[in-house]
Amino acid sequence: MREHLIALNALPKIGPVRIRRLLEALGSAEKVLTAPKDRLMRVDGIGPETAERLRNWESHVDPAAEMREIADRGLSLLTPDDEAFPPALREAYDAPVLLYVWGRVEPRDRHAIGVVGTRRATIYGKNSTKKLSFQLADAGHTILSGLARGIDTTAHEAALAATHGRTIAVIGSGLAKIFPAENLGLAEKIADGRGAVVSEFPLHTAPDKQTFPQRNRIVAAWSRALLVTESPAWSGSLITANLAAEYGRPVYAVPGPIDKPTSAGCHRLIRDGATLLTDAADLLDDFGALALGSSSDRSLPSSPESAPADLPELPAEEQAILDALGDTESGIDRLIESTGLPAPTVTATLLKLEMKRLVRALPGFRYMKR
User: Fold this and answer.
1) Which tens digits make up the pLDDT trace of 317-370?
2) Structural domains in the chain?
3) Which of 12-21, 214-223, 359-368 has the lowest mean pLDDT?
4) How far apart are alpha carbons 205 and 193 in whole angstroms?
């Protein structure tokens, strides 16, 4: 059955809504792919061109080869019939036919909070995202975002910095085409036991102007609530916020300086009814902090700076960067040169050290010990 769903999902110009209609009308993906043309055309929205494409599906896709590559890459597939498929996403009228998963989707991921914003994030936007994503992840909510540059990247990194944090990255390309390429290291960290990288697209799908809005609807539908931390007046994050509202999800937005266009989108959302948010405690009052691990009375840090500073011995990467900082301010380039670590590792590790109150971020992407 999965091979038939792979074939349906890979066919161009059909989409999840019409695929769902076909499945409801004919009963299974196999029956859809073997139905005569006249029967296919009796399904709402299926014209001659689409019916012909369905009849000739084998010229468009090789599902057996796709399944082999999925296995070779250590990936998995989820369909709406699988228990691990997010329940909130399953209920969406345009739910994906299947999800390619790198990592693992767990039951607690149904408590996901979407965090989105601009790719061109300011220091203010990144700091707001760090604080709120860290608090939400520390309270037990999975942080759901899109692996894009800027706010998305910061949200994922902040979730990973929380002791029990998890994060899901929903991408607008196939899992064999991680985009942006510089976030491959971050994707690997997410998939390595702290969440999953997820896509509805065939493995080798390249990102384009159509795939990102499709990705946004998954973020919106999966999330229990959506948080926009920084957005100009025109941004893909506003599309995601509008979709979330259509799905009946509450939308929260972080205010910014009134003279900064980088926050104009958030201000518009607040004006139009989104809830103003400056601290995760307000959102958690609505949804509740979730007990994690063996403790049932874990409290939420009021900010990353208030997270406990008494730590066990640091991992080697964290200690190397802390040693390289010395007693002066340092930029990321100098830390990369001093430690020999790749740039994604340095930036992610700096965030962890910041959350542990060992490092302070300064303007101009410079850092110093606390």
Assistant:
1) 888 888 888 777 888 888 888 899 988 788 778 877 876 668 877 766 678 887
2) 2-63 (1.10.150.20), 102-304 (3.40.50.450), 308-369 (1.10.10.10)
3) 359-368
4) 25
Q: Is the pLDDT of residue 299 over 70?
A: no
Structure tokens at 236: 């893909």
Distance between start and end Cα atoms, the chain: 56
Residue-by-residue DSSP string for 26-41: HSSHHHHHHS-HHHHT
Residue showing tokens 């201000």 = 267
What is the model's pTM? 0.79
Lowest mean pLDDT among 102-111, 237-246, 254-263, 322-331: 322-331
- How many other CB atoms are there within 10 angstroms of residue 91's CB atom? 12
At 308 the pLDDT is 42
CB atoms under 10 Å from CB of 160, counted, come to 24
Three-class DSSP category at 133: helix
Which residue type does 156 have? Answer: H
Q: What contacts 152, CB < 8 A, 6 or more positions away?
A: 115, 116, 117, 119, 145, 146, 169
Contact call for residues 346 and 311 (beta carbons, < 8 A): no
Q: Which residues of 29-52 are buried (b: 16+ CB within 10 A; e: fewer)?
A: beebbebeeeebeebeebeeebbe
Closest CA to 4 of 21, 27, 25, 36: 27
Joined tokens for residue 299: 């409290």
pLDDT at position 81 over 70? yes
